[in-house]
From TrEMBL:
L-threonine binds at residues 16, 48, 103, 122, 162. Its EC number is 2.7.7.87. This is Threonylcarbamoyl-AMP synthase. Gene3D superfamilies: DHBP synthase, Threonylcarbamoyl-AMP synthase, C-terminal domain. Required for the formation of a threonylcarbamoyl group on adenosine at position 37 (t(6)A37) in tRNAs that read codons beginning with adenine. ATP binds at residues 39, 43, 99, 124, 132, 176, 213. Signal peptide: none annotated. One of its GO terms (cellular component) is cytoplasm. Pfam families: Sua5_C, Sua5_yciO_yrdC.
Length: 306
């Protein structure tokens, strides 16, 4: 609390990934998040709040967004909503947009925000564009010399960032797939969630940059064989030709469980990258359920880098 009160960012555990948290109402604190991460300032931050009541002090809820919040908060869901003019969440956290992304986390982060009694801006606690951290050790290895405090809450349970939704004219639009399964949202609303139509979308939420979540190594998707010296991350217990000559072989879920695969994704990417391999080969992963979010992260990790 003391570090946050001084306007400094703190790495905190959440159920999704570790976040780099700072007072969302303090422009100097928000600037330090961007500086620490090397994050482009046109890329908005999610404001984490303690509950729906706190969220309503900062944004206007339409009836459908309220239903979503009541059903899935606290949890891995972010809602992009019209900001209230009198909200003290600083425009720097919104990247100048009229909207604000809000989420209610579970566990320690939830208790911390309630005690701090102010929203916390908390993007993933890593250098911008790199692999998201799911343990305190990941944060230490990346940002340990740039921040004053890292709180260790053990491995993140979900392992993927939140699903980001925006309601437009009574229809739910997906801005980023994540730790909340889209099928659960559609079951609640009784209507399909509208997916993005492709590249070139306006950046109105985190995780929409084409290149993101990238390791140092190159990334090769839907691999059917392993090249000598490559790192292999496979799925479903299926061996690939050539894996005997891989630098490391990791299986996201030998049983084919997508929830387990999501929880392991970033940690396994960190392990594979640490081998020093020039590239990481990924076998194909079903695009159903949480597989949609996993494939989204992999496609961005494999995208051309600036």
């Amino acid at each position: 609390m003391d570090v946050l009160g001084r306007g400094l960012p703190v790495a905190i555990p959440t159920e999704t990934v570790y976040g780099l948290a700072a007072d969302a109402t303090n422009p100097a604190a928000i600037a330090r998040i961007y500086e620490t991460k090397g994050r482009p300032r046109f890329n908005p931050l999610i404001a984490h709040v303690a509950d729906l009541a706190m969220a309503e002090r900062h944004a206007r809820f339409d009836p459908l967004s309220r239903r979503l919040a009541e059903a899935f908060w606290p949890g891995p869901l972010t809602l992009v909503l019209p900001g209230r003019p009198d909200s003290p969440i600083h425009s720097l956290a919104r990247a100048g947009l009229d909207t604000i992304g809000l989420r209610v986390p579970t566990g320690f982060a939830h208790r911390l925000i309630a005690a701090f009694d102010r929203p916390l801006a908390a993007p993933s606690a890593n250098t911008s564009g790199r692999i998201s951290p799911t343990t305190a050790a990941h944060v230490t290895a990346d940002l340990g010399d740039r921040i004053e405090l890292i709180l260790d809450g053990g491995p993140a349970g979900v392992g993927l960032e939140s699903t980001i939704l925006k309601v437009v004219d009574g229809t739910v639009h997906l801005l980023r797939p994540g730790g909340l399964n889209i099928s659960e949202i559609e079951a609640l609303t009784g209507s399909p969630v509208i997916r993005p139509k492709g590249a070139g979308a306006t950046i109105e939420a985190p995780g929409m940059l084409a290149s993101h979540y990238a390791p140092e190594a190159g990334v090769r998707l839907n691999a059917t064989e392993v090249r000598p010296g490559e790192a292999l991350i496979r799925f479903g217990g299926r061996a690939l030709p050539g894996e005997a000559k891989a630098s490391i072989v990791l299986d996201l879920s030998p049983s084919g469980d997508l929830r387990e695969a999501a929880a392991n994704l970033f940690g396994f990417m960190q392990q594979a990258d640490a081998t020093g391999a020039g590239s990481i080969a990924f076998s194909s992963i079903p695009a159903t359920g949480l597989g949609e979010a996993i494939n989204d992260r992999l496609e961005r990790a494999a995208a051309p880098r600036n």
